[in-house]
Amino acid sequence: MAENMQGLKRTSLCAQIDLEALGQEMVLTGWCHRQRDLGGLIFITLRDRSGEMQLLI
After folding, report:
1. Domain assignment of residue 20, yes or no
2. Residues 28 and 14: beta-carbon distance below 8 Å
3. pLDDT tens per residue across span 4-25
């Protein structure tokens, strides 16, 4: 996995993401605070120093 992360740099903090960022590609870094699998939909709560963001995979 480390090979895939080489050269990537964070573009935004969780607290900076708003509706204007919808559809844009971005790189977030942080830690997985919580993961929930709801029948094939996986929700991840990503935390960084500014706050948290919910991801849908």
Report:
1. no
2. yes
3. 667 788 888 999 999 998 889 8
